[in-house]
Amino acid sequence: MTTVLYPGSFDPIHNGHVEIVETASRLFDRVVVATLHNPQKRSGLFDLAERSRLIAASLAHLDNVEVTSFSSLVVDLAKEVEASFIVKGLRAVSDFESELQMAQTNTTISGVDTLFIPSASSHSFLASKLIREIARFGGEISGMVPPAVADALHQRFTESNEEIHT
Ligand code: PNS
Fold this sequence. Notes:
By secondary structure, the chain is an alpha/beta fold. The chain has a single domain, classed as 3-Layer(aba) Sandwich (Rossmann fold). It is 43% helix and 19% strand. A 5-stranded parallel β-sheet has the order 3-2-1-4-5, with helices on both faces. The termini are far apart. The mean pLDDT is 93. 4'-phosphopantetheine is lined by residues 7-9, 36, 38, 73-74, 102, 105-106. One of its GO terms (biological process) is coenzyme A biosynthetic process. Reversibly transfers an adenylyl group from ATP to 4'-phosphopantetheine, yielding dephospho-CoA (dPCoA) and pyrophosphate. It is found in: Cytoplasm. ATP binds at residues 9-10, 17, 89-91, 99, 123-129.
């Protein structure tokens, strides 16, 4: 059985992420989607528990997908869940440099390799940061995120009037 780990901030998960998980779920036996606290980014919009809930709701149609959260090295999580590979999505050339650096670093420190799955062109512009900004100002995000995420963003920004953190 081949397990892969798909890590990310997922703050929040969007349709581009969903597409990558759908592809991984067709290619591999088991996909573990993990939302990790990214110390390079300021505190997020949704906490890890809420991100996990939204990921699970968005991927409920996929039988071989599990959702978890973690605050540690991604390679340690990969070993813990017995993943053969880390899977990452690539949207554009701009993603490539940092993703290659992370992949090479992770292989160097652990031997865990990373496989890249290209994003569909229809999703290659999607970014959680931009979706948060659009939602914050009441813009239309329903075509970019799963329904559970659209609801959560709507609640966060229209009902509780919370400020955005980017
Ligand atoms: O969605 P993102 O923000 O691009 O995801 C980046 C993430 C969370 C996958 C990356 O920051 C990560 O792997 N963090 C865990 C800590 C770690 O292992 N750092 C070393 C990476 S070379």
